[in-house]
Amino acid sequence: MEKILIVDDKEANLYSLDALLEEIKCDEYQFETISALGGEEALRIAMSDSDVQLIILDIQMPDIDGFEVAKFLKSSSKTKHIPIIFLTAAFKADEFVKNGFKIGAIDYFSKPIEKHQFLNKIKLYLQLIIKNKKLKEMNLTLNQKVTEEVEKNKHQQIMMFQQSRLAQMGEMLSMIAHQWRQPLSAINATSIAMNISARFEDLGHKEVIEKTDKISEYAQYLSTTIEDFRDFFKEHKATQQLNYEELIKSVLNIVEISITNKDIEIKQDINCTENFETYPNEIKQVVLNLLKNAEDILLEKKIKNPFIKITTYQENNKYILEVNDNGGGVPESIINNIFDPYFSTKLQKDGTGLGLYMSKTIIEEHCKGKLSVSNNQDGAVFKITL
Ligand SMILES: Nc1ncnc2c1ncn2[C@@H]1O[C@H](COP(=O)(O)OP(=O)(O)OP(=O)(O)O)[C@@H](O)[C@H]1O
Ligand SMILES: [Mg+2]
Predict the structure, then answer these.
(1) Distance from C-alpha of 335 to C-alpha of 199, rounded to nearest angstrom
(2) In a domain, 144, yes or no
(3) Residue 339: domain span
(4) What angle do CA 27, 28, 33 make, to 5 degrees?
(5) 3-state DSSP call for residue 28?
(6) Would you say residue 309 lies in a domain?
(7) Cα–ligand 1 centroid distance for 339 (angstroms)
């Protein structure tokens, strides 16, 4: 409840002031009056009771006068917000006008007090005080609400971040699984070949070395694939020197046997031998995907004299690598969808539809290049521009 502190050095005055204020107490104005006999007591109460909302202060008091009390109250952060109304003898009113307002009083009454005017004004101040208090409370709950909302938001952001990390990890796993298929089947094929040779006691010393070297190489590739994809979502990774010629050689090491075993001819037309800065391992993944897709279409359509042609050249300071096949091209009806995630026409042959999506992400988002497709008279042409 609000408290009004009344201060006077004469007990009789305090008593009659209290009685006067009693008259306006009602449901709307609930307050308690506290009396202080003199300035010192007034200071003690004002400093210790945080519920004091209004002070009615007599100016002439023997110990510390009203002006001094007011000055002190206005100088303390604990009490400076409390409105002060002075009571002054009529003949001293001029002196108050000069000093009182300067100190920070909001109003004054001269004694003897004119009852109705006094009570009306006190009502008005009480109204203001109550409204002010409500406003402060509202502000407080508003602040609290804002803080709560901000906290909630932060929490949500953390959750979203974790979810997106999980999604990224899921995506990464799918990519690794996608890129592992070829080397894994190469390992499998090599070990089956060794096994058969051994059964027919036709496994020479030389062949064992050759084949196990191959298997080590494939295994090495599996492990670098993991490393590459672990770095995939890192913001600042270091670029390296890339040379298309070397890159093609190292990709063919992995897939050449599997492709030529299917009687597909691999043609090369290498016109760009320069080194440039990019992420070579990631580009390797892309070329691997393009070769695999070409192989898939040639087998699916049972093309006669199937070939895959890899061309590199330089154009307007860009380094270009093209993979072309004679599989008849990408139908116009789907050509705009083939880079979408999970778009595949090989669903019955467990195609994931991730190959081209991953490749586009690598080339365009990571390497800031371009991956595009077109059809020529033989088939599809996938073009990497870096
Ligand atoms: N060289 C190509 N010629 C004709 N169509 C192609 C060629 N390369 C890709 N496509 C088409 O684009 C689609 C998407 O290719 P993408 O590599 O993203 O997935 P996928 O090969 O179907 O599945 P996965 O890569 O998991 O084996 C293929 O299903 C195919 O229809
Ligand atoms: Mg594919």
Answers:
(1) 48
(2) no
(3) 238-386
(4) 80
(5) coil
(6) yes
(7) 9
Name the CA dihedral angle for 231, 254, 371, 243, rounded to a multiple of 10 degrees: 80
* 293 CA from centroid of ligand 1 (Å): 5
- Atom 17 in ligand 1: residue holding the nearest Cα: 355
Asked whether the predicted pLDDT for residue 172 surpasses 90, the reply is no
Task: Look at residue 371 in the predicted model and tell me its pLDDT.
Answer: 98
CATH number of the domain that residue 250 is part of: 3.30.565.10
Q: Specify if 39 maps to a domain.
A: yes
Gap between the Cα atoms of 222 and 216, Å rounded: 10
Q: Which domain-ending residue is among 66, 90, 113?
A: 113
**pLDDT range class, residue 30, cuts 50, 70, 90:** confident
* % pLDDT > 90, the chain: 58
For residue 354, being part of any structural domain is answered with yes
Q: Which two three-digit tokens encode residue 259?
A: 């492709």
Contact 61, 39 (CB under 8 A): yes
CATH number at residue 76: 3.40.50.2300
Report the distance separating Cα 175 and Cα 357, nearest Å: 10
**Among 6, 15, 16, which Cα is nearest to 38's?**
6
C-alpha–C-alpha distance, residues 132 and 365, integer Å: 57
Domain count, the chain: 2
- Measure the CA–CA gap between 214 and 212, rounded to whole angstroms: 5
- Choose the final residue of a domain: 46, 79, 113: 113
User: Rounded to whole angstroms, how far apart are CA atoms 17 and 35?
Assistant: 9
Burial string for 281-313 (b: 16+ CB within 10 Å, else e) reads bbbbbbbbbbbbbbbbbbeeeebeebbbbbbbe
pLDDT, tens digit, for every residue of 68-127? 999 999 999 999 999 999 998 867 778 777 888 888 888 888 888 899 999 999 999 988
The ligand 1 site (C-beta within 6 Å) comprises 178, 289, 293-294, 296-297, 325, 327, 330, 338, 343-346, 351-357, 379-380
C-alpha 352 to ligand 1 mean position (Å): 9
CB 322 within 8 A of CB 384: yes
Q: Which helix (H) or strand (E) holds 162?
A: helix 115-199
